Amino acid sequence: MKLEDFEFVFMLFTYEQIFSETDVVFDIIRQRAMDVLYCKKGTDSLLAFVKEKSSEGAFQAVYAKAAEIWESEIESEL
C-alpha cells in the first residue's frame, strides 16, 4: 500500500477519528486508575463512540471525505 492509494487515505481518516478518542480515554485511565467508576464511564463512552462510527452513515461520511482528498491529490498531480 502506498501513500497515494485510496485505501491508505481512507484508513488514515478512519484511524484518525478513532485514535483521537482512544487517546483521551487512555489518559483518563492512566491518570485516574484508582477511580474505577470514572474509568468505566470513559470506556463505555469510547465503546458507544466506536459503535456510532461503525454505522453506515459514518462510514459514508469518512469514505466521501477520503475520496474528496484523494481525488484532489490525483488531479493536482496531472
What is the helix/strand order? HHH
Kindly provide the radius of gyration, computed on alpha-carbon positions and rounded to a whole number of angstroms: 17 Å
Please give the largest β-sheet: none
How many helical elements? Answer: 3
State the helical fraction: over 70%
Give the termini separation: 21 Å
Mean pLDDT rating:
91
**Unreliable stretches covering 5 or more consecutive residues:** none
Question: Care to describe what's here?
Answer:
This protein is 85% helix and 0% strand. The protein is mainly α and 78 residues long. The longest helix is centred in the first third of the chain and has 26 residues. It is elongated and about 55 Å long. The model has no long low-confidence stretch (mean pLDDT 91).
